[in-house]
Amino acid sequence: RSNYRNLIIGADTKIPLYKGQYTTAINFDNAASTPPFVSVMEEINSFAAMYSSIHRGTGYKSQFSSKIFEEARSIVLKFVNADPTRDTVIFVKNTTEAINKLSYRLWDGNKKSVVLSTWMEHHSNDLPWRNKFQVDYVQTKPSGKLDLEDLENRLARHQGNVKLVTVTGASNVTGYVNPIHKIAELAHRYNAKILVDGAQLVPHHSINMNPKNPLQRIDYLAFSAHKMYAPFGTGVLIGPYETFEKGVSESVGGGTAETVTHDWVVWEKTPHNEEAGTPNLMGVIALVAAIKTLTSLEMKNIHDYENQLTNYAYSKLKSIPGITLYSHTSPAELRIAVIPFNIKGVHHEQVGALLSNHAGIAVRTGCFCTQPYIQKLLSITSRQMEFYRKRKNVPRPGVVRLSFGLYNDFSEIDVLAQHLERIAKNPTSYR
Ligand code: PMP
Fold this sequence. Notes:
7-stranded mixed β-sheet; binds 4'-deoxy-4'-aminopyridoxal-5'-phosphate; globular; Aspartate Aminotransferase, domain 1; 35% helix; alpha/beta; 13 helices; 4-stranded antiparallel β-sheet
């Protein structure tokens, strides 16, 4: 059993199955959202007594809340080893909002500069760039891993016109971890900045925005609290103050202006000019509590344990006839606990439904907001996608995804393997 299981709320919740029996829920969908840490819920509960609207209140509780909210920024910076003299923390609602925000700040309005994204990005790190930049996509290899040679070729081809290289720290489809410092070095050599979409990496592996070699520094980082055991609608955008100090945020209103007349506005200092409206104080409290717990457990231990789970699941799945795995790494290679697969002759949605209805196992099926990458992994063209789009009654292609959290057990993987074996043999055996 996982040593971390007691740290989680709801790890042993009983849920109903299709035929009315009850079972303990098994959650293998942690890449979407994680359940809360007990410590997070306790902190929310105990902080509630001091909770008050922040920044403009004169009352004691309001001032206390404001102080805690501002202190949270340095805790977040420290967690990812950002540079507090250079970098600011902007609290947003999630990674998607963080990336959209940055896309507006970097936009030069003439759509001439290039953003180099990749074939393995979540839509949230692809679509925000499309209407503001020329977006070019770094290829993935047949294995699904990022092609670094292609990255360098593209940087060279655009002749210094690449403003940003934007890349996921770890894939939400294959679990591959990208060599972000190597990528940073390449980007900086060509005078480009780098954004790391940390939604999947940050909850599962330590991240260092400031390694010794300054060329390898990560300029921007985005991540979401709801994937790191603090499911309360908070995300983070980290980057240099100077990016956000000039000009006007894409989202303005209460809290963003220092002086407003009907004729002119003086904007608040960064990061306040970027946080329009009443901030999500409880969400930030939850994020800080989760960071404290993750730090005390040590990210290395968490990663090691999750890696063992992943290797175990791989070995189980590999031995089941009819299963196709879409990601492969050697055990020594860095990866996060995400495994995509299909069962021959059984649609991915059916696999998900059978696992849920008959075994109480939650997985995710489909394309996980990463459609181009899945299309590539499954060798499906844009033209074929048109076909699927037009024929609503034809099931769409996709995969089944397992994603583990620190509280998952080896025994849960055994239960999964038993059911997958049964589904692979005969999916109608459950009727
Ligand atoms: N990037 C990646 C790699 C993700 O996995 C996700 C969430 N599935 C996101 C971005 C978007 O995160 P959020 O929904 O919290 O904005």
